[in-house]
Amino acid sequence: MTHAVIKDITARITERSKKSRAGYLAACEMQMREGPRRRRLSEGNIAHASAGCAVLEKAELLGAKWANIGIVTAYNDMLSAHAPFEKFPELIRHAARRNGATAQVAGGVPAMCDGVTQGRDGMELSLFSRDNIAQGAAIALSHDMFDAAIHLGVCDKIVPGLMIAALRFGWIPQIFAPAGPMPSGIPNPEKARVRQAFAAGEATREELLAAEAASYHAPGTCTFYGTANTNQMLMEVMGMQLPGSSFVHPNTPLRDALTAQTVRRATQITNMAQGDDAAFTPACKVISEKSIVNGIVGLMATGGSTNLTIHMAAIARSAGIIINWDDYAAISAAVPLICKIYPNGIMDVNHFHAAGGMAFLIGELLSEGLLQGDVTTIAGGDGLHAYTKEPVKNMHLEVDSVIWRDGPTKSLDPEILTTVKEPVREDGGLALMEGNLGRAVMKISAVKRENWFVEAPAIVIDDQNELIEMHKAGELERDFVVVLRFQGPRANGMPELHKLTPILGLQQDKGFKVAMVTDGRMSGASGKVPAAIHLHPEALMGGPIAQVQTGDVVRLDPANHTVEVVGTDLAGRDLATQPSQPQLAALGMNMFAAQRAIATDAESGASTLGDMPWFI
């Protein structure tokens, strides 16, 4: 039986989205066709699309008897999580043949790495790359050659961007095929210790580089529970990839078998499939109000990335579903945190996977009524209950052969993965903050309770490098709240500000009460230091954060959900103006000026794609 709060929130979202959801589904229904999509193309269209193919594929494409699967890939070999995708198209093509289908790379999309651009000018393109990815994937799918699509993407903006495009083409089936995490490197707390030591001048640059290289050391996703791994959790909880496929290492027999099995399943859910496993499953039927709520439940139960408070809104709107931070807050109050994965704990996603992983997590949340099992998924059959199973490779059969067995019903390590009745904490660890500064969110699951409440004089800055210079000058040896403004979507693309974490963490460890308030973002690994982030209205749009002055007393009180300036009437003050930012005028950066000019606020998804017709 579904938990009463979850049922009520789902009903509230359904009612709020009634008109837009109906419009979306009607628009998808209008695009659906019987038989292969390419049958409607002209002979010249199909000849162009098949000219470069091998003889077998060309014969089938021209004959229009087999389903054709489009591959949208975010491969590049600079990004460790995406490097394994280099060989995926060939694996997919071979698997398609074995399953009576063809497969073509429909297009590629960019995949920038926030780890590389962290603290650099390029980070100011990061958030908008999501919508660029969505547009690139839309171009790939626009040829109307494909009866299903397989998306190859893992990391921060890539999965949300691909999901937006998948839902905009929601009339065909869409499946995600992940690459998996790298093996564990040095413990995450040790990496954080070296970073803080470097910030304090107690470690050399060579020691810092050695620690970083020992952390990020192989192909695969970074192993901390940041945005990339939160994305993978969501794709399973929302039913968009195969059960148990998130955290299997790259370049292993099971990973290759799962990729092949993804192709088999993609073929089975086209409208051309035959047999007992055939079930036409377009993306518009997989993502529903219930699956969106399931995703937010998973986010709270695992202590996932704060970036998803932005991305989930954009994903949901692409399916005609409207959510807001009040929904997050209500779900956070009802769903306990049952995982301790860095930065909420010491261990990483590999330890989480070994302790029971997604199969245990989903089974536990289903058994307590916190996840809604009666949803459509790409796995078919038993709704979300299929995701309580885990895959194993059958070494005696062909490469496609994966056997799903019942997942564990008890955690192998309760320190990492526990139960709803004995949680890490009673809520999901995400607080909605409101007050005379606007609306913000704060991830409290990784912040020690004694550090939650901060009331201290403001240090108002407009560039994160200003705080770094103050630290070098020894000016931060006191209690303070850094108010970092003009970091919103319209100001400079809303960069992550994780570069400041070692400095703030160092001052907190010295016993000072420190916090941050910003209209920018923190990393998916944000934690330890209290930070009210994604504040809106942003400074450039006249938000009150533009009226705060250095020395004003700022209060962060997540227990009471408040972020405010105390004892000062901001209304009578002039708004600060955005200082000149030369990097935004640089040749590459100014290509995104048009997107900055139209971006929505963080709570609405920080979208640059505009409202869909079904919202009108």
UniProtKB/TrEMBL annotation:
Residues 415-606 form the Dihydroxy-acid/6-phosphogluconate dehydratase C-terminal domain. GO terms for biological process: D-gluconate metabolic process; Entner-Doudoroff pathway through 6-phosphogluconate. Keywords: 4Fe-4S, Carbohydrate metabolism, Gluconate utilization, Iron, Iron-sulfur, Lyase, Metal-binding. Its EC number is 4.2.1.12. One of its GO terms (molecular function) is metal ion binding. InterPro entries: 6-phosphgluc_deHydtase, Dihydro-acid_dehy_C, DiOHA_6PGluconate_deHydtase_CS, ILV_EDD_C, ILV_EDD_N, IlvD/EDD_N. One of its GO terms (cellular component) is cytosol. The keyword S-adenosyl-L-methionine does not apply. Residues 68-380 form the Dihydroxy-acid/6-phosphogluconate dehydratase N-terminal domain. Belongs to the IlvD/Edd family. This is Phosphogluconate dehydratase. The gene is edd.
